[in-house]
Amino acid sequence: MIIVTPTYNRRQELPNLVASLEKQTCQDFTWLVIDDGSTDGTAEYLKDLQKNSLLDIEYYYQPNQGKAIAYNQAFQHMPVDEVHLVVDSDDELLPNAVATFYEDLQQIPQQIGLVYPKTIAGEPTKWLPNKVQAVNIMDIRFKYGLKIETCIVLKNQYIGDFRFPTTEGETFCSEELFYNALINKGTFKPCATEVYRYKYLADGLTSNLFTMQKNNPHNTRLLFQDRQKYVQQNLKGPQRFLELIKVRLNKIAFNLVQKDGSALSEADLRDWLLMPAAIILKQIRYHK
After folding, report:
1. In what residue span(s) does the Glycosyltransferase 2-like domain sit (predicted)?
2. Does domain 2-199 have CATH number 3.90.550.10?
C-alpha cells in the first residue's frame, strides 16, 4: 500500500501526520512524499526523518507546479500491482486506518477501490445510505447530494495512462478530472468506517478554491467541460437538467472574471438568460 502526500510549505503540519502514520496498527505501507517546491525546511525535515524514523519513506522533490502535477509524479513511482491513497500534509489517519483498508480490500475483488468519508473531530458525518454498495466518486456529490471530502483507496492498475494536464503558467487542476476518468473503469465500495480526519487551513486549496480557479483558466475550463460530460452521461430527468444549468451558470460566472472577453464572445441565448444570476454568482465567488 502506498500513502501519497503531495506537500508545499507544510513543514509545521507534517509532524502531526507523521505521528499518525507511526501509530498505525499495521505498518505495511510506504509513505510517498512529493515535495512541490517547498522553501520552509520541508526537505531537511523529511530527509532527517528518512534516517531516524521506522517509517518506509520515499521522498521526491519537484519545482513548484501544484498538487495535480505532484500527483502525476507520484503515479510514476507507484507499482501497478499496489493500491494507494492520498493523505494531505495537514491531515491524519486514525490508528486503525491501514488495517481497515487491507481488511476492506479483501471484500471487493471486482471493484476498483474503496471510498470513506473524511471527518472532522467532534462534528457529525454525513454519508451514503447503507444500501448503496457501489458508486463512482462523482456520484457522491451529484447523485446523492453529499458535498463532502472523501478518502479514496484505489487499485493502481486502474490509473492507466491518466495524467493531469500540464499547462504552462498554471498550478491548479481539479482532481475531479481524475474521478471522471475512472468512471468507465469500475465502481468503488462505500465504507462508513472513520479512518481519516482533516481540517481546513486558511491558506489551503479548499478554502481558496475560487481564487485558484480564477488564476488557472485553462484547467478550470477543462473542469467545466468534464463536469458537463459527466452530467450528460450519468444523470437523468430533472436532476440532469438542473445540474446542466448549474454547470452553465458556473462557466458564465467564471468567464465574467477573465480578461479575454470569453464571457461575451462565447455567450449564446441561454447564456444571456442566465447572465443576471451569473453576475451575482461572480460577485459572491470571485470578489470576496
Report:
1. 3-127
2. yes
